[in-house]
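User: Hello, can you help with two protein structures?

Assistant: Certainly.
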Amino acid sequence: MKKLNISKTSRSNFITYGMVIVLAALMMILDGAGVLSSSMRGFLVPMCIYIIMAVSLNLVVGILGELSLGHAGFMCIGAYTSAVFSKCMVDTITFAPLRFTIAILIGAACAAVFGVLIGIPVLRLKGDYLAIVTLAFGEIIKNICNVINLGVDSAGMHISFDKASDLNLAEDGQIIIKGSQGISGTPKDSTFLVGVILVMITLVVILNLINSRTGRAIMSIRDNRIAAQSIGIDVTKYKLMVFTISAAFAGAAGALYAHNYATLTATGDKFNYNASIMILVYVVLGGIGNIRGSIIATIILYILPEKLRFLKDYRMLVYAIVLILVMLYNWSPKMQEYREVLRLKLKAKFGKLNKEESIT
């Protein structure tokens, strides 16, 4: 019988897909058996949201090599645009799965459009300058969502940036967005299964992009921008492509977020720079450029604060210590050397050590 030849990259991708499918199936089995607590069930959809956010941000930070601190802004755009669509179409499109699918696509498309509009002038910057501008972009989006009032009547849409009473709606009109009070009454269409499907779509698209010819061009820009330009690679084009794809998936995650809660607001830490930095922490601790690591780090670090609630006032102290220890484990040269030796010993034990590899 002829042995199938699967490349190392394909094998790694299948391991990532399999890991997500197994974890999702395990959660569904535990939920069906009534083992999961109500708080853990409430974590399932948000966990999928932040996995999508971390994986899509890793495309910018790890694969392209640029620092973006405005990822929560794209999530906010996707959340608001999809929620507005669903609220307006809830009586027109009564088939919830179709309405929700269109809402996700609209959220992703609107976030992608803003990714292009912001990316064209911004991606000529790099390093700290890019980080500061994207941070400002996220704050601008959040503040606009906090002051906008939007209503719909037979004459169309009405927008006001002052008071809801300034909308001057007809008798058949309804207010969709009410300033800092946000959007209420959004259909709760998000489920864990939909979240897992979106995670899988994100992984398939991003992993295939990374391992394609386009992905190699993007990584060459990350490694040496001048050398990449010298061989004819269009740096601006590929940067804009990555930024747009990343923004689109953040918008899709925002749509999932908006349809998971009855009320959507941009107040607090939901869409501000703290949210962007939290997602960046997931990326860094999981390993910059390591997609599988981003998934694992997001799951652990998202659940950990809730599981440490029994420590009360010391909860965040222990959480910070865990972050420091994980950072040291991931980035300490001694730990990296130890992990490499351990990896080679395991390969030697199972007879998979290559001739060029040796244990020192």
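That covers the first. Now for the second protein you mentioned:
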Amino acid sequence: MFKREELIPSAEEILDQLPLPAELKKIKAERDGLASSVIRGETDKLLVIVGPCSAHESKPVLDYVERLGKLNEKVKDRIVLVPRIYTNKPRTKGVGYKGMFTQPDPKSREDILKGILTIRRLHIDAIGASGLSAADEMLYPENYAYMEDLLTYIAIGARSSENQMHRLVASGIELPVGIKNPMSGSVPVLLNSIYAAQSGGQVFKYQNWQVRTTGNELAHAVLRGAVDGYGNDIPNFHYETVMKVIEGYSQTGLKHPAIIIDTNHSNSGKQFKQQIRIVEEVLGNRLYDKDFKKYVKGFMIESFIEEGCQKEDVVYGKSITDPCLGWADTERLVLDIAEKV
């Protein structure tokens, strides 16, 4: 049984209530173009999506993104930096903290309307403070409409990549959408998901409308590692496994084939310090093989102000979900990536 608690206004009403200012729309449009140019292969820059596993509190996230904005001035000739402001969190067992969208204060009760408004203010403030527009995970496709004017990059997680609605909504987005390999690691399933997202003419119900999509040629692969039937992590960032994905891509005719390496999750076994080693290995492989370099266009890195994680929000700027790199390591790593692009 569903117990109705509060009527949530439509996306149109929320966007009218809390719009993105005109001067920030110009910044976002420029950032959209930069991120899209990487996926299209129009630039040799790398796309680096970096930030907290989950954005659970506005103040430290803004602090972090401001730091990224300053770092961006040092690396923008070689890297397109996109902050992770992830506000919807999947839960392996279906329970627990589900992100700022649902629970804007992790120490208080769920309040979705407050969550939507809190997230919009956070994104608007972040763009204004840093000059960078962000990435988020499209965990609930219907919720994307509340954020569609704010995001430059959209991720579809491993548990969602086989879902019909995620594929359909992705086909109507005109921005880079990174689709993670499913938990099984299946490359054919991953490529089928990208094919569906790139396919136009999809008709379905979205936000109380029958819609028809044009297809998203910027949908692409994100390799995050896999989990076997016994719960063991299986990395897929190594040269041999990435080349298998490239081989699959070459047989599909998909537009703008691109691969982003997720350096955490099953690739690192959630050993957050391993993200540094993983990036270095991938950068070395880009130098070794021109096809590897052509297809591998960036990284997803989990990072926050303080390294590691905590169960409750006690330490400022420390993740309350998966463990992250700290700021000092992050800054060194981003500068290193810029040197080796």
